[in-house]
Design brief:
Shape: flat
Radius of gyration: 34 Å
Mean pLDDT: 89
Distance between the termini: 54 Å
Structural class: mainly alpha
Strand order of the largest sheet: 1-2-3-4
Helix content: 55-70%
Largest sheet: 4 strands, antiparallel
Number of strands: 4
């Protein structure tokens, strides 16, 4: 077995979360089959998933699973479970692999020794017993022998949801079986192409994509199986086009149509994949048709996406910008996209001009994309334009007063060595907000958070006392001042613990015990440990039936 397969490499490949979840699936691994360089199994999760782990991949740990996460190319928890199962059988694995190799050799030797008639008899016997195998072979035979009518008929059958649907809809439980059946279509079209009938294969592929798109509306494709079928059909269409060499302009027209939504993205065809088929005449037609479509509908998402894709591929930055500029958003996000395009093209001055234009054009600085503000401020700081960076952060803070914008103003002002001047003005704004508000809003006054973030605990305490604070802020304040003001902190802890005493649940008990530990520390600092002992004794008596609470208190010596 390749030394790459270890618990450490499984965790690195899958990530900590998938690795941890995979450990919980060890008992769900069944039907383990060891081959020469691979292991397969079934892992029972939400559904039954087929998993294959490659043991000798020189690139490292690899495998495949047909769960939704695995189909996206990820190393999922089911692969982790199989990998851990393999590691648990490490000592016996070489023996199992050798046995699998011998079985394969025995089978190959036996098959090689059969006559043609004996092989035919064997295949016919299997075809009689396995309906799926028979239908698959019938499709391959029709494709290879040019029975195009039969192939088209079979393709329609394979993409028909009828056998899987209840009340006209394929539920999640049956969707995987339908997708597995539909996957045969691409292989059949490839067979038609390989038989020298590329033109007919192109037509079949287009029809199959249309049928798949129609079916997709009636299938719960949460697993993404139909997406995989669409990818295979797109590849089959491209292969057929390479063999048939259709008219470049007609193909360009079809590619633009599908890019604008004819197949609703189910096949995910990239027109640029067809560049070798289109040639220069077809590519010119493709660009012309894309431009015409965009000019007719400049704000259409599909039209803009196609234009940007073609422009980037051709290195035409100005065209990419023109597409963006035709549909500028009020919050400056599009201006930022343009700035990034220009910066990547080595045109930083124009990039900054577009970013600044985004701010000028915005009707409300408070609604501007914060990433645009960040982009400009970072540029100003890199360019030693510190005054402009502070001015922009000040204006943004004034329009959107939050702890984050306060922190950003502070960072810029410190870089410009003017925070002592800026801070009183910023705090005055926050105090005005707090005094004008009625009641304590969710999250508490930003003023208190800002003062806490400045490590100005005394001022934060005074602000909380004068204008109020929420429980989160009071708890933070009590923790901060406890060493120097234990009596004040004690009052906060006692108030916060009262509502918890009437609730149940382990999460509540953990909060409650945490407060009790803090209360104990306050009494220790005050020299009133006897008062704490009386308090805890009374609390234990009143809540002795809460066994988990009692256990937690015991663990903390309470």
């Amino acid at each position: 077995m390749n030394g790459n397969l270890t618990q450490a490499t499984l965790k690195e490949r899958a990530g900590a979360r998938s690795f941890e979840r995979g450990q919980g699936y060890l008992n769900a691994v069944t039907g383990v089959e060891v081959g020469d360089g691979w292991v397969t199994a079934t892992v029972h999760g939400t559904e039954r998933y087929e998993v294959r782990l490659n043991l000798d991949d020189p690139r490292g740990v690899s495998g495949a699973c047909d769960c939704p996460y695995g189909l996206e190319g990820n190393f999922c928890k089911h692969l982790v479970a199989l990998g851990l199962t393999v590691l648990a059988q490490r000592d016996s694995l070489p023996r199992q692999r050798e046995a699998a190799r011998k079985r394969a050799q025995t089978l190959d030797t036996w098959l090689s020794g059969l006559s043609k008639d004996e092989l035919l008899a064997l295949v016919r016997e299997q075809v009689d017993q396995d309906r799926k195998l028979r239908r698959r072979l019938e499709l391959w035979a029709a494709s290879a022998h040019g029975d195009l009518v039969g192939v088209r008929s079979r393709i329609r059958e394979l993409l028909d949801i009828g056998p899987f649907a209840q009340y006209g809809y394929v539920e999640y439980a049956d969707a995987r079986a339908y997708a597995h059946q539909a996957m045969q279509v691409a292989a059949a079209i490839d067979a038609v192409t390989e038989s020298g009938r590329g033109e007919q294969a192109v037509t079949m592929a287009v029809e199959a994509m249309r049928l798949l798109t129609e079916a997709a509306d009636s299938v719960d494709d949460s697993d993404g199986g139909l997406g995989q079928v669409g990818v295979c059909l797109a590849e089959a269409h491209l292969n057929a086009c390479r063999a048939a060499r259709p008219d470049p302009e007609e193909l360009a027209h079809w590619l633009v149509q599908q890019a604008l939504g004819d197949f609703d993205g189910i096949t995910d065809i990239d027109p640029l994949d067809y560049e070798d088929v289109l040639g220069e005449p077809g590519m010119s037609a493709l660009r012309k048709l894309a431009i015409e479509a965009w000019r007719r509908r400049r704000t259409g998402w599909a039209e803009r996406s196609l234009m940007q894709h073609l422009a980037r591929a051709g290195g035409d930055v100005d065209l990419v910008i023109a597409v963006h500029a035709a549909d500028l958003t009020a919050n400056g996000h599009t201006h930022l996209l343009i700035a990034h395009e220009l910066e990547a093209a080595g045109r930083p001055e124009e990039a900054v001009d577009w970013a600044e234009r985004g701010l000028r054009d915005a009707p409300d600085l408070g609604a501007v994309d914060t990433a645009l503000v960040d982009y400009l401020c970072e540029h100003y700081l890199r360019s030693a334009r510190l005054t402009q960076a502070v001015a922009l952060r000040r204006a943004h803070f004034g329009a959107r007063r939050s702890l984050l914008t306060y922190q950003q103003l502070r960072a810029a002002a410190r870089a410009a060595e003017c925070w002592q001047h800026e801070r009183p003005q910023a705090l005055t704004l926050l105090r005005g907000d707090a005094e004008r508000s009625t009641g304590i809003r969710y999250g508490g006054p930003v003023l208190v958070d800002a003062l806490l973030d400045d490590q100005d605990d005394d001022a934060a305490w005074e602000a909380a006392r004068d204008i109020g604070a929420d429980d989160r802020q009071w708890l933070t304040l009590a923790d901060r001042v406890r060493a120097g003001r234990p009596a004040d902190a004690l009052g906060v802890y006692v108030r916060l613990i009262e509502p918890l005493l009437g609730q149940t649940g382990n999460a509540i008990y953990e909060q409650l015990v945490g407060l009790l530990v803090s209360i104990r520390d306050c009494h220790r600092l005050l020299g009133t440990q006897e008062d704490f002992t009386s308090y805890v004794t009374a609390l234990r008596g009143a809540h002795r039936r809460k066994r988990n609470l009692m256990r937690l208190m015991d663990e903390h010596g309470l």
